[in-house]
Amino acid sequence: MILPPLPRARLVCPALRWRRGSFKSERTKIEQALAAGVGGFILFGGTRAAVTALARALRDVAGRPLLLGSDFERGPGQQVKGLTELPPPAALGYLNDLDATYAAASITATEARAVGLNWIFAPVCDLDIEPKNPIVQTRSFAADPERVAAHAAAWIRGCQEHGALACAKHYPGHGRTTTDSHEGLPIVEAMGDDVQRTDVAPFKAAVDAGVGSVMPAFVAYPRWDASGSAATFSPIILGYLRDTLRFSGLTVTDAFIMGGATAAAPEGEAAAAAIAAGCDMLLYPTDWAGVVHALEGVPAARAEEALARYEKSLGEWGMGDAGRVDDAMLVEHQKFADSLSDRAVHLIRGTSPALSKSLAVTIVDDDVGGPYTIPPRDVFAKTLATQGVRFPRNRTPDTRHLILVYAEPRSWKGRADLGAQSVAKLERLVPGASLVVLFAHPRLAAQIPGDVPVVCAWHGQALMQRAAARWVQAAGVQRG
């Protein structure tokens, strides 16, 4: 079914996913959504060439500017193959180098615009203050509000000064939750004053830095808004953003595929409620056409206000392709990313072990089992192999055993720690091991038994695997 053009469709931003090597499976959705008049898309996956071609085609078919965004919390390489991966926010917060954070954001924006994207759903402004939080963890710069505020502001300036719209998320803060809004509606029982004083501080810094968009959380704060509505649907909490923090830009919901979006009402009704409460755009609905129809029930004045903010943002950030990023520039960006990752990898328990040129590597992968693919896990060993390290089938007396632990925050887990199977495997493997490399939040080292040395490498992405291999080469193998 092709909807006739509806002005309020501009407030809807469907998702486009790279599947089986192309975006072809999204062709019908693209045709129908553009004909209906949607305001933009969020893109997941793709190659550098394919995303560039898709973004250009979307604008050509639409015959108008669009907001085209993606989740680039760890740089554009997080989604687009061939672009630069950057360390996760927690690693940048650990380095606490604001110039580096600014530069990371500038690379992100520059490469995003070169492939036709103009909206980046970052930075995460949540505080890493709850050890049981299943979804924030290394996505946050830090636990300290001042540090998060400083890095969020630096990231926003780096992004927007290089031509892409940044998005501070997840207002007023997802850091206190112990459940995941992908699965349901988390409830934060902290007093509203406490949330405003601490959790909101990075969002105030974001607004002061001129951030162009803010993403409210599918999280309820009943001691701030007694109705129990999630921030996305709360005129009180959204009003604080507008009236107290003085934010005048675009508010965009988190993805409507998330359980927290529809915990209180069906998707169409919830979408209309979000716009009526003060949101301006709806991200990633499961039934975008149904949501467009549902918006006809939003009061006219509120819909016109949202449309005006969308048009203003489009005027400021809706440019298409903006310059090129050639291979030489990508090489320089990669060198910078490698330098950051090398600085971020560090020992968090014990002393550097003496290793040898003969290693055995065992993987404990806490990220296997969910609906999403995981990054390749062979990058660490391949990097060491290029430096002459051997991985014999049968261990010799000089072979040293390394354990790699992968544990990212993933929406399907519903927990912040290592699962029982991972812990049991570690208990079997750790005796006799020389080193554990933790591709996860450093606090998970507390679950690694014994006193084996542990090095923190933050995340299982290829960038951090290479950095961990270089650390092992420099700190261990050279002395072995």
Key terms:
single chain; 480 residues; TIM Barrel; five-stranded mixed sheet; 15 helices; 14 strands
Report on this model:
The protein is an alpha/beta fold and 480 residues long. The protein folds into 2 domains: 7-317, TIM Barrel (Alpha-Beta Barrel); 345-477, Rossmann fold (3-Layer(aba) Sandwich). It contains 15 helices and 14 strands. A 9-stranded parallel β-sheet has the order 1-9-8-7-6-5-4-3-2. The protein has a 5-stranded mixed β-sheet with strand order 10-14-13-12-11, sandwiched between helices. Helix 9 (267-277) links the parallel strand 8 (250-255) and strand 9. Helix 3 (89-95) crosses helix 12, helix 12 (327-344) packs across helix 15 and helix 13 packs across helix 15 (462-477). It is globular and about 75 Å long. The termini are far apart.
The H-and-E topology, N to C, reads as EEHEHEHHEHEHHEHEHEHHHEEHEHEEH
Structurally, how many domains make up the residues?
Answer: 2
CATH fold-level name of the largest domain: TIM Barrel
> How would a crystallographer describe the biggest sheet?
9 strands, parallel
Number of DSSP helices?
15
Radius of gyration: 23 Å
Q: Tell me roughly what share of residues is in helical segments.
A: 25-40%
Mean pLDDT: 95
Structural class: alpha/beta
Assign the CATH class of the largest domain.
Alpha Beta
CATH superfamily of the largest domain: Glycoside hydrolase, family 3, N-terminal domain
Oligomeric state of the chains in view: single chain
Share of β-strand residues: 5-15%
Number of strands: 14
Shape: globular
- Under the CATH scheme, the architecture of the largest domain is Alpha-Beta Barrel
In whole angstroms, the N-to-C terminal distance is 67 Å
Strand order of the largest sheet: 1-9-8-7-6-5-4-3-2
Model regions low in confidence, pLDDT < 50 over at least 5 residues: none
